[in-house]
Amino acid sequence: MTKTPVKDDPVTDLPPEVLRDLHRRMVRIRLFEEEAGKLMEGGRMPGFLHLYVGQEAVAAGVMATLRPDDVITSTHRGHGHAVAKGADLRFMYAELFGKSTGYCKGRGGSMHINDLSIGMLGANGIVGGGIPHAVGAAYAAVYKGRDSVAVPFFGDGATNIGAFHESANLAAVMRLPVVFVCENNGYAEFTPQERHMLLKDVADRAAAYGMPSEIVDGMDAVAVYQAAGRLVERARAGEGPSFLEAKTYRYYDHQGVKGLRIPYRTQEEIDTWLERDAIAALEQRLAGADVAPADELAQVWTDTREEIAAAITYAENSPDPDPADLLENVYTV
Amino acid sequence: MREITYVKAFTESLMQLMAEDDDVVVIGEDVAHYGGVFHAFDGLLTTYGEKRVIDTPISEMGFIGMGVGAAARGLRPVCDLMFFDFIGVALDQLYNQAAKLKFMFGGDVSVPLTLTTAGGAGLSAGPQHSQSLEAWLAHVPGLKVALPSSPHDVKGLMVAAVRDDNPTVVVLNKRMLGTKGPVPEEIYEIPLGHANVMRSGTDVTIIAVGRMASEAMTAASRLAEAGIEAEVIDLRTVQPLDSTTILDSVRRTNRALVVHEAVTFGGIGAEISSQIQEEAFDYLDAPVIRVGAPFSPVPFSPVLERAYIPDSNRIADGVHRLLERSGA
């Protein structure tokens, strides 16, 4: 591996701990998802699985700019956001298995991981469903005099749904501290962007609500971190909402473990994105900039694999929910 | 006791709720500067300011969803849906989000959201501003649904709804907004899920939803002149449903009629009728009768609308049919 620093590469300007943190968050997401995929493929896990693999730089880059009391809302493809926000992998896997120790006590499954203690206000099974909640969380923060911000994550496809537009306009007109993060992976399920909107850049939609926007390479964790950092600080300073479009790519299908299928995607397109893999790219830059030697990076993978193996064991050995408690938590009593 | 209108009782409940709890905020279209299209929010802005009384864009899904998020983060929002008929554009935030958040979060969150709205026909408001859709919402686990039938009840049920830690929909009846009645000045709560036995009787139980309670009382007075003593139950809430009060009454009167303004088909009356036959079949002298609207959108023409909405005459007719059927 070359040790020649890339001239003007911003990694050399960032503190090494920030770069290592971005790397670690991405590796944790990648391995969490790969293992979840294997569990599903092996028939050990029930339900649907919308894997986040390929998009790791977005969750890692944005979350590294947030504080624990900043609130995010997520999507059906939400594992990456939860992992990056600091969720406990044991409780995540337990929920994927439908166990009583899961984040939702086995009531939600993959699409509903949440942890209010770390500001994770829930993944959501309804496209766009969580976006208004982030606006409400931002309003509650302002109302209570807190300087926390709210970040709803959503895809390119979700920007065609009413909840997005209503939320964007509400946040703008109320000048709330919201950073709307669109992960544009180019597909609304299986429909490519050019067939679901006429815009090339989803970020153009922000202008309709009088909101500034940035477009960033969603395969570049450093670029995402820097752009998100600007917008989050702006929101925290009371300057209102903004919109970040991160252009990225999903390595697996919309649902399940079948990856990179054609013909709805072309081999050429797939190859182009795989060459730009966010984790590999960052590792090259870190090694090149002498921030982290290869063995240190390899250790992150090893440690994470161990943590994940332990989390899966914990989840599989956890008790199932008791059918006698079926009606628990339908109402607050 | 002093008498005030139904809408003033509503406004007073909010004035007092906002005074007792700083976390209560009001969010909706034209609720602040205009005071609401029915003046149900008059005076709140001047008393509590723009921080707590918020005019929103016409974005029902957006601001109800915002209420869900704010509720999950410690506020106690009251979101106002101008007309019950508009629920369709916001429904996801109510039935998929507000209603299920606690369940999906493994109990780690509560959504103390109140959704106020105005339903019911009788003002020639036409097919999209007159509906009674409470059965839709009563069908959703996680929601509570109240339909106050008097000024006294609107205040007490509002207080209970806002203080409740579950998402609760309070459906005001548009035709009753100007109706006056006795209302205590102090703040008080009418517990959700407890029906009100408005009149005791021995011959038949009339179970009424919302404004139909007053029509049922009128019918009961007329029936009494003919020597028929009807027990009238105002459900107050359709979710939770006070099955105990209904069944206790039917086991004594042996006859039941359910009346609501919503269309009969698939209405809450079908659920009540079914529960009665499951739990009190052996006590019945006749099948349960349902009185509701015909299976049609609410018509605009005053002539057609009068023919459409159930009233005391149709309730009394139903009672006579019940008695004939049971050979009384």
Please characterize this protein's 3D structure:
- The complex is a heterodimer of chains A (333) and B (328).
- Chain A has twelve helices and seven strands.
- By secondary structure, chain A is α/β, with parallel strands linked by helices.
- In chain A, the strands form two sheets. Chain A has a five-stranded parallel sheet with strand order 1-2-3-7-6, with helices on both faces. In chain A, strands 4-5 form a two-stranded antiparallel ribbon.
- Chain A is globular.
- Mean pLDDT of chain A is 94; it is low at 1-6.
- Helices cover 37% and strands 20% of the residues of chain B.
- Chain B is globular.
- The model of chain B has no long low-confidence stretch (mean pLDDT 97).
- The chains are: A alpha/beta (333), B alpha/beta (328).
- The A-B interface holds A 71, 73, 102-105, 107-108, 112, 114-116, 121-122, 124-126, 129, 131-141, 143-144, 150, 162-163, 166-167, 169-170, 173-174, 328-332 and B 25, 51, 54, 56-57, 59, 61-75, 77, 89, 92-93, 96-97, 101-110, 112, 141-142, 144, 164-166.
Physical arrangement of strands within the biggest beta sheet of chain A? 1-2-3-7-6
Largest sheet of chain B: 7 strands, mixed
Order of helices and strands of chain A: HHEHHHEHEEEHHEHEHHH
CATH class type of chain A: Alpha Beta
Please, what is the oligomeric state? heterodimer
Distance between the termini of chain A: 61 Å
Order of helices and strands of chain B: EHEHEHEHHEHEHEEEEHEEHEHEHH
Q: Can you tag this structure with a few keywords?
A:
heterodimer; A: 333 residues; alpha/beta; globular; B: alpha/beta; Rossmann fold
In short:
Chain A has about 325 residues and is an alpha/beta fold. Chain A has helices at about 15-40, 55-65, 80-85, 90-95, 130-145, 160-175, 195, 205, 220-235, 265-275, 280-290, 295-315; strands at about 70-75, 150-155, 180-185, 185-190, 190, 215, 240-245. The longest helix of chain B has 15 residues, at about 5-20.
